[in-house]
Amino acid sequence: MADAPRDPTHRQDEREAIRARVLEGIPHGFLTGPGGTGEPDPANIAPGAGLALVKQVHSARVVTVEEPCAPDARPEADALVTATPGLVLGVVTADCAPVLFADRAAGVVGAAHAGWRGAHHGVLEATVEAMEQLGARRSSIVAAIGPTIAQASYEVGQDFIDQFAAPQHRFFVPADAAGKWRFDLPGYVGWRLESLGLAATEDLALDTYADPVRFHSYRRATHRREASDGRQYSLIALSA
């Protein structure tokens, strides 16, 4: 897995847009939460584009989209794929892992919301399969893991680790408190992506919990008894 990128970032819709090296040349951005309100302007990612979002439900469900999704008609899913130029796909997160995909040669992109449930039940694999149905080849697909909660910030109980098979327990380390563990969500997501035989995978290695200046974190807000409705958007599109 590649090291975290150090490429310059810039402002989009008053939110910082973080880029991934593996997606260079593909319109995309992992937007920070603070600095903007409401849904982002898709034109900041792809001029003249419409925005496609879904109603996220922590599932492995993927939809193929060809046009913008109206706010009152968004399907329940946790990933989107498209081969339609000028359409911006987006997912929202606040600790879960946003993953953006692209096959430049085939002209197919995807976006997935990979919380532990979605990742555990196959949302990443389902996204790649949906891209293949549009003509992508997994050996040509690249994927970038955006800002997500890091292992040092993600304490869980024994009942959580019991839901994973023994070989996957390597993504857990003991926490300070007895009976508690720390889960490596980005490591787990990266492992599942690498198991798919993709062309390249990149982890931006940005911890949402530890960076309140740039990122919303549901867990941090809950611990601090603050409002927990903040989110950040991750967007990707094909050039028109």
TrEMBL record:
Gene Ontology molecular functions: copper ion binding; hydrolase activity; S-methyl-5-thioadenosine phosphorylase activity
InterPro entries: Cu_polyphenol_OxRdtase (IPR003730), Cu_polyphenol_OxRdtase_sf (IPR038371), Cytotoxic_necrot_fac-like_cat (IPR011324)
Cited SUPFAM superfamilies: CNF1/YfiH-like putative cysteine hydrolases
Taxonomy, superkingdom: Bacteria
Keywords for this protein: Hydrolase, Metal-binding, Transferase, Zinc
Record bears the keyword Hydrolase: yes
Catalytic activity of the protein: adenosine + phosphate = alpha-D-ribose 1-phosphate + adenine; S-methyl-5'-thioadenosine + phosphate = 5-(methylsulfanyl)-alpha-D-ribose 1-phosphate + adenine; adenosine + H2O + H(+) = inosine + NH4(+); inosine + phosphate = alpha-D-ribose 1-phosphate + hypoxanthine
Keyword DNA-binding belongs to the record: no
PANTHER family: PURINE NUCLEOSIDE PHOSPHORYLASE LACC1, UNCHARACTERIZED PROTEIN YFIH
Family in the record: Belongs to the purine nucleoside phosphorylase YfiH/LACC1 family.
Name this protein carries in UniProt: Purine nucleoside phosphorylase
Naturally occurring in which organism (per UniProt): Aurantiacibacter arachoides
Name of the gene: pgeF
